[in-house]
């Protein structure tokens, strides 16, 4: 079972990762039993990269992930979490979290990319997960905090990496331009790119992907379904794109891509998962997973054979950019679980 190295570090990720936001009760309640079963199913399928964050369910995701991994050989898996949002007591709770997670709001998030904030966040995450270390730490959505994130948070993380406390460092965002700055201007090893290198949006070709390739750094792709529009075989009106209802033009384009996928014997969701790995800097695709059934479906989609000619036809028909690189070798040979 293949793994790929994160930049110049010793951290290695399986080609498919388990995104743990959903087991933090994202949008709806997930039972503790279902959350544990999802992690168990991922493990049985060979996934060894698990991503979480304090933001996800106000710590619930971290607690559940840590509990589900407890007792497994620590050197066999990689866990990433994030810094930038400290969890602090909520002086004015209203009952339920207001940022998309169905959990009590006894805690609230406070932005903090200071050195002290980074150290405290990591310490809190280790307590919630029960882990002895984090393998990979990202800055989480530092869009409005570039100066403090670049000047304080990254150096703090780099010091921990250089001391061997954590294995690799980076940043995760829904935009690509600032991620390119983190790669070019800071000690980041890797970035988590959300939604900007998909079948519907290849804007990362203009900034972050060339930066990673030039510098020998790595990219983890998330949000590959663009909030849902690419998640079904036949896209329909009313589906979401980047957290909002998809414009008709994008629905039409997604349907056209789905038709080409069908002609090549595959499906739109399978192609959406496979597409990011056509770029040599993208070492992993991480998907949000809530239940064992979702894990099974995602693994099955990830393992589907995707003929290299699919990307050629999509380029020829103008459905993806002409500068999307060709897949490495026939079919799915460049990808690994």
List the helices and strands and how they pair.
Layout: E1 3-5, E2 12-14, E3 16-19, H1 32-45, E4 49-51, H2 60-69, E5 78-83, E6 85-89, E7 107-111, H3 115-129, E8 136-140, H4 146-162, E9 168-173, H5 177-185, E10 190-194, H6 208-215, E11 218-222, E12 240-241, E13 244-245, H7 248-263, H8 268-274, E14 282-288, H9 292-303, H10 308-316
Parallel strand pairs: 3-4, 3-14, 4-5, 5-8, 8-9, 9-10, 10-11, 11-14
Antiparallel strand pairs: 1-2, 6-7, 12-13
Write a concise synopsis of the structure shown.
Helix content is 35%, strand content 18%. It contains 10 helices and 14 strands.
Task: Describe the protein.
This protein is an alpha/beta fold and 337 residues long. The protein has a single domain (3-316), classed as TIM Barrel (Alpha-Beta Barrel), CATH 3.20.20. The chain is 35% helix and 18% strand. The chain has ten helices and 14 strands. An eight-stranded parallel barrel has the order 3-4-5-8-9-10-11-14, surrounded by five helices. Helix 1 packs parallel to helix 9, helix 5 packs parallel to helix 6 and helix 8 (268-274) packs across helix 9. The longest helix has 17 residues, at 146-162.
